[in-house]
Amino acid sequence: MDVDGAAAALAEQLVIDETRDVVHWRGSGGEPEVTGLHDYRALYAVPGLYEAVYLVRLGMRSPQLLAQVLALVCPPVRRAQLQVLDVGAGTGCVGAALSTAGFRRVAGTDLYQPASPRSAATVAPSTPAPAGST
Asked: 109 pairs with which residues across the strands?
């Protein structure tokens, strides 16, 4: 999974304390911050923080693995036509992986409002299905 430069730079300064389930980092003003590893609202509120923690530092690969499994059972022609709804999309990691695997009609949504706009922007744009394909 590709991460942007901001997430990669942020990942370098993180200190993850897995025994306490927290991540220590410096806020935009340089002030020390502590966020729970599972406090998704807080992680999504800071651009790149979720990606820095989970994709870069913890090496999460579930978005790519899910996309690989779906690609195995769905032929390339069908991938472009299939409509995928990612509920709980977070920052759109799964949608981006599905897009890379050839799925073109992906939409994401999340209950946490700071995450929703990014997930919608990260996933592949919806394109109309050919007539009679759904």
From this structure: 87
Spatial distance between the Cα atoms of 112 and 92, rounded to a whole number of angstroms: 12
Judgement on whether residues 33 and 73 belong to the same structural domain of the protein: no
For the chain, counts of helices (H) and of strands (E): 7, 5
Residue type, 25: W
Residue 32: CB atoms within 10 Å: 9
Q: How many residues does this entry show for the chain? A: 134
- Could you say which of 15, 30, 57 is where a domain stops? 57
Distance CA 98, CA 6 (A): 23
Torsion of CA 113, 44, 110, 127, to 10 degrees: 100
Predicted confidence pLDDT, tens digits, the chain (134 residues)? 567 777 888 899 999 998 999 999 998 888 999 999 999 989 988 888 999 999 999 999 999 999 999 999 999 999 999 999 999 888 889 999 999 999 999 999 888 766 655 555 554 444 444 444 44
129 part of a folded domain: no
Residue 115 belongs to what domain range? 62-122
